[in-house]
From TrEMBL:
<dbReference type="GO" id="GO:0005524">
    <property type="term" value="F:ATP binding"/>
</dbReference>
<dbReference type="GO" id="GO:0005737">
    <property type="term" value="C:cytoplasm"/>
</dbReference>
<feature type="domain" description="Aminoacyl-transfer RNA synthetases class-II family profile">
    <location>
        <begin position="23"/>
        <end position="332"/>
    </location>
</feature>
<keyword id="KW-0030">Aminoacyl-tRNA synthetase</keyword>
<dbReference type="InterPro" id="IPR004154">
    <property type="entry name" value="Anticodon-bd"/>
</dbReference>
<feature type="binding site">
    <location>
        <begin position="82"/>
        <end position="84"/>
    </location>
    <ligand>
        <name>L-histidine</name>
    </ligand>
</feature>
<dbReference type="InterPro" id="IPR004516">
    <property type="entry name" value="HisRS/HisZ"/>
</dbReference>
<dbReference type="InterPro" id="IPR036621">
    <property type="entry name" value="Anticodon-bd_dom_sf"/>
</dbReference>
<keyword id="KW-0067">ATP-binding</keyword>
<dbReference type="InterPro" id="IPR015807">
    <property type="entry name" value="His-tRNA-ligase"/>
</dbReference>
<dbReference type="GO" id="GO:0004821">
    <property type="term" value="F:histidine-tRNA ligase activity"/>
</dbReference>
<dbReference type="InterPro" id="IPR045864">
    <property type="entry name" value="aa-tRNA-synth_II/BPL/LPL"/>
</dbReference>
<dbReference type="Pfam" id="PF03129">
    <property type="entry name" value="HGTP_anticodon"/>
</dbReference>
<comment type="similarity">
    <text>Belongs to the class-II aminoacyl-tRNA synthetase family.</text>
</comment>
<feature type="binding site">
    <location>
        <position position="256"/>
    </location>
    <ligand>
        <name>L-histidine</name>
    </ligand>
</feature>
<dbReference type="InterPro" id="IPR041715">
    <property type="entry name" value="HisRS-like_core"/>
</dbReference>
<protein>
    <recommendedName>
        <fullName>Histidine--tRNA ligase</fullName>
        <ecNumber>6.1.1.21</ecNumber>
    </recommendedName>
</protein>
Length: 420
């Protein structure tokens, strides 16, 4: 046991696994860039009221899971539990919605939720998210969903599915909510569930207990009570998903943990992860921007859980980001050789080659072992005799094949050997 440990429930990424983490994020980010989203870097903490109002007081995220504290000026601030509220706040604050719409933004980084830690459920979680704000077009909902799907496919993932539904809007949801509450009031539910039914009845539909599930078999479903407009909107989203070749299943009981959703909502679920199977989710939010003091513009977006996506890649045995940490490993034998190889390493790096060197005066055996471990394809071995001859040994580590190249032209020789 070391003297200090990281706080509980926080995954740390260090080599070699951190390379896979970065590759996951980068692959997904590339899918996002292909759809024209610009990057936004947001504060890690915000005014507590932003989340209370934006995400919803009745959600578990706000009522039980926020890292909230008073700063030294006595203001209540909260480590961001999610990204959408912050993006919308920033769009309003900087007037980003006064130009071309939709405003298409993407972000990535850590988010904080005081949850009970377990495999795939962390207190510091990493997300990559997008938000497209200002245009209510079902084709845009489909685009957002298709980006995530393309990103997952680019990683090589196959064991996931997409679930979608429509949560209606301000015209049809209140009526449905009442209908659901009436239905729930007639059930022999425990006190806590009863309280939840009054506060947030849709959440009850998400109850995992078999006995409760059984009681909910005939519960009214939002999809059966959509306004004509919301129904048409939902049909169009599905149509565009088909046009994009994105497969989905409809789950009319899909419940999200955040309150701002309207109309299209979705979740990507991976089957290889056990209980924490949601690898990403999102949807449309009609009222959020106005709720936070902006124009009444609608938005749509997703948050992808990078920690879980990495676990999903590992569960499927995918090698993501297995690029070796360096391509060439320099092995100097003696001080003069070291000075020369230090310079060569610098030149190679300037030429775009990833290079490491055996530091600490290792002998040939130890240095070659380090070269093997580095994952490099080639070692450059420089001894006294080579130095006198103005040459260096270029050794292919996998085959053991070795040839002598002139020190003068070593950068060109290495680049040719690497095929660049
Ligand atoms: P969310 O569903 O709360 O949505 O989170 C998105 C994803 O983050 C989840 O699907 C999951 O993969 C990951 N995630 C959430 N909590 C944890 C945790 N404790 N440990 C590990 N991974 C976790 C949002 O946050 C919305 N802001 C998404 C959105 C953007 N909706 C519209 N725009």
């Amino acid at each position: 046991m070391s003297t200090f440990n990281a706080p509980k429930g926080i995954p740390e990424y260090y080599p070699p696994r951190s390379a896979a983490f970065l590759a996951v994020r980068e692959t997904l980010a590339e899918a996002v860039r292909r759809a024209g989203y610009g990057y936004i870097e947001l504060p890690i903490f915000e005014d507590t009221t932003l989340f209370a109002r934006g995400v919803g007081e009745s959600t578990d995220v706000v009522s039980k899971e926020m890292y909230t504290f008073a700063d030294r000026g006595g203001r209540s601030v909260t480590l961001r539990p999610e990204g959408t509220a912050g993006v919308v706040r920033s769009v309003i604050e900087h007037g980003l919605d006064r130009g071309q719409l939709p405003v298409k933004l993407c972000y990535a980084g850590p988010f904080f939720r005081y949850e009970r830690p377990q495999a795939g459920r962390y207190r510091q979680l990493q997300q990559l998210g997008v938000e497209a704000i200002g245009v209510d077009d079902p084709a845009l909902d489909a685009e957002v969903i298709a980006i995530a799907d393309a990103g997952f496919r680019a990683l090589g993932l196959t064991g996931y599915r997409l679930e979608i539904t429509s949560l209606g809007d301000a015209t049809c949801r209140p009526g449905y909510r009442e209908r659901l509450q009436e239905f729930l009031r007639d059930l022999p539910l425990d006190t806590e569930t009863r309280a939840r039914a009054e506060l947030n009845p849709l959440r009850v539909l998400d109850d995992k207990r078999p006995a409760v599930r059984e009681m909910l078999t005939d519960a009214p479903l939002m999809v059966d009570h959509l306004s004509a407009e919301c129904r048409e909107n939902y049909e169009q989203v599905k149509g565009f998903l088909n046009d994009l070749g994105v497969k989905f299943t409809e789950n009319p009981r899909l419940v999200r943990g955040l309150d701002y959703y309207t109309k299209t909502t979705f979740e990507f679920v991976h089957d290889g992860l056990g209980a924490q199977s949601g690898i990403g989710g999102g949807g449309r939010y009609d009222g959020l921007m106005a709720e936070l003091g902006g124009q009444p513009l609608s938005g749509v977006g997703f948050g992808l859980g990078l920690d879980r996506i990495l676990l999903a890649c590992e569960a499927e045995g995918l090698m993501v980001g297995d690029e070796a940490r360096c391509q060439v490993f320099c092995v100097p034998l003696g001080e003069v050789a070291k000075a020369r190889l230090v310079a060569v390493a610098g030149e190679l790096r300037a030429a775009g080659v990833r290079v490491d060197l055996a530091y600490g005066g290792k002998g040939l055996k130890g240095a070659m072992k380090a070269a093997d471990r580095s994952g490099a394809r080639y070692a450059l071995v420089l001894g006294d005799r080579d130095l006198d001859a103005g040459a260096v040994q270029l050794k292919e580590l996998a085959s053991g094949e070795q040839r002598t190249v002139a020190l003068e032209g070593v950068v060109t020789a290495v680049r040719e050997a690497l095929g660049r």
